[in-house]
Design goal:
homodimer, alpha+beta, 11-stranded mixed sheet, 5-stranded mixed sheet, 36% helix, Proline--tRNA ligase (chains A, B), proline-tRNA ligase activity (chains A, B)
């Protein structure tokens, strides 16, 4: 009973305190737990199962484009990290350093990888000799460490899980193409599977990856109007190749530098799922990513035949390819409903003695709470239909929310006013100078999220300095 | 041509220099590469794909027994590692220490996990209150670090990949059962999937895991007669629970300590696959674990219709559920054959203009080199049959080799003579005292591999000291 009470206790309303609501959902949906290791999280079964589904789906899509998985060491010798100037400047201040192995001090410090460009470059330098060795299209699934000062579960932690793809190509064109291909893959994945609409674009020089020639990004908008960088794809040109001496002999027997890319997506997407789709009853998971898509909850389960029928329905749904389980625990139905809602299970199926008499069950959809009374023989088809509709409508709803919170500003007063009072994206023109980005950051704590591929002409001048505009930019406060 | 030559060059014969043969296979089958990080390896696509298949198969078997996956931090604060006395003594001398985060020295050193008992205990201590919270049957897939002095690819490296299961139970009986259940799962996996026969048994106190009440092991025999510990399962009793204060209230409202287990299998099984099944042409992969089970090699591929037919056969085999690819590169057939053999692809299918005229292809089996001429319409069924037979016979052959290299010794002269001259397992009686294990290690560099569950009575006295015997033990030199 004590535990039931704990779960049924309302979580903080997202309209009252969004940050506290987020923390409550993470905790009560049992996605992750705190540990004795400061800034690092323990990902619990309900959270990790989401990550496994993300992995499975991304990995399948990667492999369809020719990606091969590998595994590189987790340590980077200091001298290796130092090889590319911009890269080391970007990462050295936030890495964890290993100085001792067993009882001995190391001759050279090793950092725990914050990202693995330098390791892949070192590897490619040894592996690539001829144009026949190209392209290399490698990826690894691993954890990385960045010594952040302030941390939040899934969104920013000292250690997080991700995949990092690292490719080497014969030509600049091929590298550019791969960079864009992977950005599109991420965007499609977010929209089709996570039901999260994204803006595709390029980062400004200020915001690009340390060592990249160009960084492309997908940006999404959370329910509270803050932006989340959701996946990035970097084109390195031949910068790293020159720093690491990665050359191949082309068909004319000439030595050439390779052109490289890298791209990554992380466990922060679990945070995005919470903040895009969640509500005041907890998590709401899009059916395609939900580890459990439907739960059958028996009503008056001690009555004869009820548990058996619940189990029978579960088996029928399972046979139809639906990820389903029965909740046959001895908790009350009301408690089970609250739990199913907190955990974001897309559909629940209620079935009691009266339903059985009538040969029917009740389907309840998590996001809209719509209910359907369905004959047993139509149950599997109807559940699948509800899941499909829910997946589609969750994306539409998120897109409508994003669009309703995307504003335009054509002068600086309007820009500041909007950023300060209307959480969301602000589209505005920009002159291309870093000074304006710095001023905007200083004035209203917003950053350039991206220069979208789909440019619009909103005015002729930079919203900040009034000089001639070069690009339309999405601005926003971000996680 | 230069590259062709490099590949076709014979590898060292396993009978001349087994260690060099192993290194050659690892390199030429492109399983892993050396890195600038001393003692750490880069697992290449061909090696990592084997690991992915091991993961997929083990993970499925785990989940069938109720295992849930989680992810714990990679760092362990020194004070946490120190909590269980035997455990810290076992691991502290071989861990990597992080002392700095970014530019700051840490207040407390963190070690990179060599294994995660302490982290799971810390987590369980927070999570477990009531008997309703039990059992916890968690597992994680990750990498761990042990600062080894001497390293060898897959067999012993400073960082390696593994899974580590950590469970907590209400009773000692349940913990014991889970320990044995997982050992049996590992044994079945090795035999059914990797075609590696194993001896199941218990480790002596000298060889058991640091902090365990009992360690169970599966031991396999490599082609050179050396043993390989292939998977272990530990019963901790309530030792860790007492050190970490992990208690629950039972149904009578009494505080009780939990009982715990852990169990793991690592990337060293890729080394086992090489050393159990490989031959002087390279790797030989059991069909059930092979990332590519069959390769179609067109003969005289420039002749009209040959490449098309090869691709058609590949599609037919793919449709039959076989993992297959066409080798349509511009290398010579002889080179492609050598490559297929080096990489251990179980079956190759040769098809040239004459074959096409006759409506047939040639199947060649990797391990026995048996060839079958098969009509196109029977190809898929025959390939599947060959794969099934090969899987079965590889296990039988490995078991016959293991049995032929398992000896009995009933006195110490015979024991030393056998260990020194006949590589393999030696079964002999043991008094139960560590002194005899130490003396044997000193005299002939052999260790007790396990006290097998299937005990035999070989004599009444210890093979070493002549005192009354307590157990029959498998002895051997080991990797």
């Amino acid at each position: 009973m004590a535990k039931e009470k704990k779960m049924v206790e309302a979580i903080t309303s997202m309209d009252v305190d969004f940050a506290q609501w987020y923390t409550d959902v993470v905790k009560k949906a049992e996605l992750c737990g705190y540990t004795s290791v400061k800034g690092c999280m323990a990902i619990k079964p309900a959270g990790y199962a989401i990550w496994e589904n993300i992995q499975k789906e991304l990995d399948r899509r990667f492999k369809e484009t020719g990606v091969e998985n590998v595994y590189m060491p987790m340590f980077i010798p200091e001298s290796l990290l130092d090889k590319e100037k911009d890269h080391v400047e970007g990462f050295a201040p936030e890495v964890a350093w290993v100085t001792h192995g067993g009882l001995d001090q190391l001759q050279e410090r090793l950092c725990v990888r914050p990202t693995s460009e330098t390791l892949f470059c070192d590897f490619y330098q040894k592996e690539i000799q001829s144009h026949r060795d190209l392209p290399k299209v490698y990826n690894q699934w691993c954890s990385v460490v960045r010594w952040e000062k302030t941390t939040r579960p899934f969104l920013r932690s000292r250690e997080f899980l991700w995949q990092e793809g690292h490719t080497a190509h014969a030509t600049a064109e091929e590298a550019k193409e791969r960079t864009i291909q992977m950005l599109n893959l991420y965007a499609d994945f977010c929209e089709e599977v996570l039901a999260i609409p994204v803006i595709k674009g390029q980062k400004t020089d200020k915001e690009k990856f340390a060592g990249a020639e160009a960084t492309y990004t997908i940006e999404s908008l959370m329910h509270d109007g803050k932006a989340l960088q959701s996946g990035t794809s970097h084109n390195f040109g031949d910068g790293f190749a020159r720093a690491f001496g990665i050359q191949y002999t082309d068909k004319n027997n000439q030595l050439q530098y390779v052109h490289q890319t890298s791209w990554g997506m992380t466990t922060r997407m679990i945070g995005a799922l919470i903040m895009v789709h969640g509500d005041n009853s907890g998590l709401v998971l899009p059916p395609r990513i939900a580890p459990v898509q439907a739960v059958v909850i028996p009503i008056q389960q001690r009555k004869e035949g009820v548990l058996e029928k619940a189990e029978e329905l579960t088996q029928i749904l399972k046979a139809a390819g639906i990820r389903v389980k029965t909740d046959a625990t001895d908790k009350s139905p009301g408690f089970k409903f609250a739990e199913q809602e907190m955990r974001g299970i897309p559909v629940r199926i209620e079935c009691g003695p009266k339903d059985i008499e009538n040969g029917q069950a009740v389907i309840c959809r998590r996001d809209t709470r719509e209910k359907y009374v369905v004959k047993f023989e139509e149950l599997a088809a109807k559940v699948q239909e509800v899941l499909d509709t829910m997946q589609k409508e969750m994306l539409e709803r998120a897109r409508a929310h994003r669009d309703a919170h995307t504003y335009v500003a054509t002068n600086y007063e309007e820009f500041k006013e909007t950023i300060n009072n209307k959480p969301g994206f602000v589209k505005a023109m920009w002159c291309g100078n870093r000074e304006c980005e710095d001023k905007i950051k200083e004035d209203v704590q917003a950053t350039s999220r991206c220069m979208p591929f789909q440019q619009e002409h909103l005015s002729d001048v930079c919203v900040c300095c009034g000089k001639p505009a070069k690009k339309m930019v999405y601005w926003g406060r971000a996680y």
